[in-house]
Amino acid sequence: MMTRLSVQLIVSTVIVPLVFGQNLLEIYKAMMNDQAGRAKTPPINIEFFGESLCPDTTRYFRNHIMPVWNALHASTLINVTYHPFGLAECRRNDGVIRCTCQHGPAECQLNMLQACVISALEFPQLYMPIVNCMQGKSSFSSAIDDCIVNFRPRPDLDENFMTRCAQSQLGAKLMMQHGYRQREVASDLDWVPWILVNGRRSQAAENQLKTIVCGFSEPSRYEYCKTTEGLIF
Ligand SMILES: *[C@@H]1O[C@H](CO)[C@@H](O)[C@H](O)[C@H]1NC(C)=O
Questions:
Q1: Signal sequence: where (predicted)?
Q2: How far apart are CA 49 and CA 205, in angstroms?
Q3: How far apart (Å, rounded) are the C-alpha atoms in residues 115 and 113?
Q4: CB within 8 Å of 170: residues ≥ 6 apart
Q5: Number of alpha carbons in the 13 Å side-chain half-sphere of residue 40
């Protein structure tokens, strides 16, 4: 039987070198650690849970998370983590994981694809634009074509490997891991998008993310925080 440890092992020994070339990832990790080391204050941790075919999650990506993320991710102000799971369920029977999703099998496929991309690229700085692109796609093949083949956000992200990952037990395992995390930190989730700000659920963050994030910073520090851009009421 697979344990979580061996799942992580598969991810780090199989996916990462295939997608990246180990060196590039090591360089990137060193860069991120350096950046974190230089930050005077810890970042605002925004961890959120959603579903690939949920219109509310899609709106959240487009109207709230991405504008804030685009404006501020290069600073050390925010640390965004996404989990494609929500009101899904994964069970392991005779060693085989089967998942069911609120919006049916197509949603599970797309959640798994997002989970594969998150696992392969590891850092939100790398995976967010791709996961956002895949969010709400009407078909698996358009997610692959529009968000990897034609988008080419990273030349080293391979569409065939991502397809195999998403359509295999590896994708199911990765999605299940997001479910484990959800059970751990958002066990009472009954709605998506479900947003944790510094570990606590914030309903206000569902429609006032910018206000909340900017409220943590000195008012004049970030250009983005001085404007009303991205405020949606
Ligand atoms: C970023 O968020 C993730 C998930 O919540 C957490 O594991 C990680 O420690 C955070 N990084 C920092 C620098 O706080």
A1: 1-21
A2: 13
A3: 5
A4: 10, 14, 15, 116, 164
A5: 1
Give all strands (DSSP E) within 147-227, no chain letters: 194-197, 200-201
* DSSP assigned state of 166: H
pLDDT at 213: 94
- String of DSSP letters for 38-62: H-SSPPEEEEEEE-TT-HHHHHHII
Question: Is the distance from the beta carbon of residue 79 to the nearest atom of ligand 1 less than 6 Å?
Answer: yes
Q: Is the CB of 45 under 6 A from ligand 1?
A: yes
CA distance 199 to 178: 16
**74-123: per-residue pLDDT in tens?**
888 899 999 999 999 999 999 999 999 999 999 999 999 999 999 999 98
Residue type for position 13: T
Among 69, 79, 194, the mutation site with the greatest number of ligand 1 atoms within 8 A of its Cβ is 79
Question: Which amino acid does the sequence have at 161?
Answer: F
Contact call for residues 78 and 68 (beta carbons, < 8 A): yes
Ordered domains of the chain (ranges, CATH): 4-226 (3.40.30.10)
pTM, rounded to two decimals: 0.85
Query: Is the C-beta atom of 125 inside 6 A of ligand 1?
Result: no
Give the DSSP letter of residue 198: T
**Sorting pLDDT into bands at 50, 70 and 90, what band is 6?**
very low
Strands 44-50 and 78-84, by their bridges, are parallel
